[in-house]
């Protein structure tokens, strides 16, 4: 260190002497006539005296550093002379440079030591020297980063505006220069990584530091940090090493650098497709993936084949390489599927790409009634869900650059959705915001070049399959640069360098971004092919398939057979025998499972469930991430392929909740019917095949039966047929088939109460006892639509109970003329009906009737019916309830009990002097109603995170009390006593107010319910409100009145009889 200090002092003295002499001579200029002679003398003095002194007293490194400064003035270090004459201007500049270097030497020492005041003072006075290396060749930023001075690092980058990627220089002896010096060519990031300063590493990368830049010995900052566990872990989490190749090695160069070094193409991707009617992605078969891969490996001077034919299952399919779109069956959008390659376009095909995003959810997003294949631009309009948007030029560059630099995540502000900050997961190709209110999928499509003009094309959606195009590849860009086909200001965008990152790319490296997965990122997938050729961690071999067992033994060789025999001998009855492979098989392990077919469907399903559970749990314990199953049981055993497929898929779905991983079912190519069954079960087609579609499907839910039927609603036999007053076609069809009696009854009821939620008429000529016409309004908003369906089902159930009926025929309301979202309507309808049947313990027969021409609607009903889970709902009744075996629901509360005194006290406090005596207080024990109320209460608390239950009063005539106790506060009578704060059921915390509605009977007795009411989130109501506004649960007068709109929202706990 002493010698270094001496070296610094010698250099400073030498430079100071030169400054002193030059300053003295400058003061003489202009005073004497022979100025040029003075300049020549000064030049000679510097050459003969000071340079000779420098040669004798300075180290070679300092001497070369000083020579480098003088070289700007044509100084020849070998001859030790200036090759051109000094001028007055030359001397002025030389003096200025030497003074700058003196200041830089002090600043460099201060930076090394962390002296902030000296460094800041230097930057303010000499801002142009911010990136100038010291005599050691290192920069100010390198020094402060190396010695962990984080505040100075931030100052130099943010205030000083230094370049984060400036590299050190070499001032060693010219004849002894060697590439062995690791500091030469290194950056501040090299130093921070080498020293293990993680905070500085993150900061520099946040501000554009290139972690793939190399120094004089070809080391990257990543290389320098591999000996530090914290730096190694950071890059392992930050960078994406591979998609499909199973490697954990941290990459050491960018993708453009990688493909520059390799002649052969690299295959590292997954080919996937997403039906336009589904929110899940599925992997293509190995054959299809291979064809797609080869379709994009083309020389830049060759015309691209823009459409390829695939044969999958029984349907012919075409894939547009231009649109990345799979087409089936008459090119209808609902039969199409989007295609993507989850991997790098540059690494796999050496082509540049256009990135696109598809929103699955957005607070104001709208859903089109039918799928569309239109590609949209990023404009500030209402977001259309399930549609692709092209990223604009700036955002596209950011994604391309992030992929080139092998980033796992990138966060960008999207200005077209109010500058929302979105994090893109470049591994799984999904995105979401921090609040998880915005999310969706990501993909790229290739960029193309016109074969005619040789110019890049900007919009794939305007290209036809017959257009002569080729890929916009890296080799094209090189040639176009030489031929001046691309403007010089656009060439830089193709280099994808990691500079000027601050204003565009938001790197929050404090924690790894939390991504929400949409659809199926850990896939349940079905493919056609050979199980032994599938790239997966584990393949499953059943003891029941001698063919597969021998096949895997042949491929695996002697070592596999020996290992299996040894394990089997150890324990022949273990459920899974796990044998690691040695590279002869594409999987990492083979799982041998002991399974035998069974003629009994229940035993068959149970055995498959155990098999799946054992395999997935074993794979999870051994840290495997993907499994391939054969179609076990679908061979020559007489098992139902449909039942096997259904059981397999459902059990896998259940297991993946605890052990997420990729599951593939591999089906032999000569078994298309088995392939179709598995494909149906995972919903990849969005609809069932016409040939296998039955005309009815039913399932048991507890004691109830839910049935889906293709047919005519007017031909159904049931106690009740449901109609809708909002569907003119349905209403007229029912009335026309039912006859004049029904028409007159409907018109009379509507005239008497136009606000009625339900109008009940006789069955007339139909095969039913009653027709319920319910008021229901379609809505494009998914949340409002769901709630309206829930309310519709509730009203149907309540009124069916009140009439003592046990069978219903339900049309597919909303799925025809209203063009509502079929999946939302059907799923809500099926799930809500199932919940009602279970929780109320009803032994009903409910039929959903779908018109024969609405095949997609029928298929959706069948799909939702099959997907019902069997989990029971379990609640307990209050401890004050009395046991009873006679189905009574009214129990007198004894006056001496605390229960009685509590109800009486609350009533007295609220009523004041408006009553004389309480005759009776009865507890209402309607278990079915109470269970519904508790279920609703649980949902309210889960959603609002607070208890919003209130004890309120509801006065009514004696004639209404029995109906209420048996069937709840039925909204069918809403509006009878006014609608000032909404058309619902009215409650009040003021018993005196409710007293006004409790009309006396002939004995002078009045009746008032004490109710438990869930007010939830409430809002001021008005007479125009037929239901609560979206986001609210009730309406109010702002004081004591509360109006509910759901029958399970209140429970009549007590009935007070008084005078």
Automatic annotation (TrEMBL):
Q: Which residues form the PARP catalytic domain?
A: 877-1059
Under which name does UniProt file this protein?
Answer: Poly [ADP-ribose] polymerase
Where would I find the Macro domain in this sequence? 511-683, 693-866
State where it is primarily located.
nucleus
A GO BP term here is: negative regulation of gene expression
Please name the top-level EC class of this enzyme. transferase
> What Gene3D superfamilies does the record point to?
3.90.228.10, Ankyrin repeat-containing domain, Leucine Aminopeptidase, subunit E, domain 1
E.C. number: 2.4.2.-
Which residues, by range, are in coiled-coil regions? none
Gene Ontology molecular function terms on file: NAD+ poly-ADP-ribosyltransferase activity; transcription corepressor activity
Cellular localization per UniProt: Nucleus
Organism source for this protein?
Answer: Rotaria socialis
Q: Which Pfam families match?
A: Ank_2 (PF12796), Macro (PF01661), PARP (PF00644)
